[in-house]
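tool=predict chain=A
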Amino acid sequence: MRRPHWPRRVFAQLLLSQTVVTVGVTAVTAGLFLAPVSRELDRDAMQRALSIAQVTAQDEVVAAAAAARDSAVVQHHAEQVRLATGASFVVVTDTGGIRLSHTDPARIGLPVSTDPQPALRGESVTAIQQGTLGRTARGKVPLRLADGRIVGEVSVGISDGSIRRRLASMAAGILLCAGVGLAAGLAATLLLARRLKHRTHNIALADISALLVEREAMLHGIREGVVALDRRGRIRLANDEAVRLLGLPEGVTGRTVDEVLPPGRLADVLAGRIAGADLPAVRDDRVLVVNRMATADGGAVTTLRDRTELESLVRELDNTRSLTEALRAQDHEHANRMHTLLGLLELGRHEEAAEFISEQSGSHAAVAAGIAERVQDPHVAALLAGKAAVAQERGVRLLISPGSHLPDAAVDARALVTVIGNLVDNALDAAQSALAPAGPASTPRGAVPTVEVALRADGPALLVEVADSGPGIPSDLRELVFEEGWTSKQAPAHRPRGLGLAMVRRLVERAGGRIESDDSPLGGARFRVLLPEALHLTAPLEAR
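tool=predict ok
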């Protein structure tokens, strides 16, 4: 014989279990309600029997007949009371407990089946007892003469059958109410089960458990951050990658975005205050691409992609492309110079040829020597040498301030290269814009666009200044330029703009420094960066 299987569908399990629970609760409730009703009916029957017995005991004729042991008179009056009240029996006894009346005349003269002593001592007694007429609710009182002398007892009984009939008549109404409640509960259970069937797409409970396990494995296994918010903007889920990318503390569930992230573009995007697709944002030194999608329940799911390495590669590609173009131009220029040198030699102008060679070789060597003399950190020196070649190709003059000095003692050379590189790139773009025909009218005709870099070390502190001769920054935009995604230039197709200065400010603030912008002596903008702990104190510092 096959054992019945528990239903697999969620709605079927809910319907069956709730039906069983509803029926059980209704049955228990009805039973708990009927039990005190039954006890109350028993108490009412005992009190009624006691009242009949007390009224009968007050009859002086019955008391006198009982004192004379005249059973005929006692029987006559007792039967009248029994018939009038509907009691099962009215029994009167003498002081020895011998019956003087009974519903069965044959039992007159016999001792009563229950103890008469409490009533003969003057006590009133109520009880449910088993006697010759079955289980009855009884009331017993002493029978007294006018002078108060006890001459017997009066015992009145009400049959259990009459009590049960009253209980059955009341139980019908109780059970009817219970049935109505049961029907309402089953209807509500059916509606709830149908709604749950729709919400769970009629899938099995085991499938829900499997989906939950697979969801957890997927969310914590993918290399993309996922943050889920409820309709109140509180975080209800953040996978491991999101915690890593955003630097979230432990126990973020139930807290809002503004409570766990500092004010800025990233918090605004996650909270939905800024809308759009593939929005760039910066968290510390990480470049993130954020997408936010609203859910049907009023919440949202946000995905985060780490583009830090890609952004670095793109910047390196841009630098490489610029350097390649510079080398191509230099190759073309070198070929022209070689042709010039060959012409001078063929014309026999050897002195002019020697002077031409000295002049050309000295210009490049002077730039490299000037950088190496003032910048001893190899990473920053290499960066500035490369930027100088790019600047020359773009028609911009890159200068190192005469008072600059940077020892080979950088605490974090990678961060320093990022800060200086981004500032120089922006300055080159600004300075080169002055060469365009639509450039600012204030640019003097024939003036060479210039970018000047100043590096000054003071103990462990380092001051970086990058100035340009470009159009400058209006005073009302000097704070806005540090926001993620803000740019005054058209973004190229391969990457977004507006991240460089935001990343620089995050790196500077994380190092405990500050960055600010003002007007440059060259006519454009100047960025000043102070890094209080950028250099090792133990490194030897040369006089400057």
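Residues 437-443, 493-497, 539-544 have pLDDT under 50 and may be disordered. The chain has three domains: 10-166, 222-305, 368-531.
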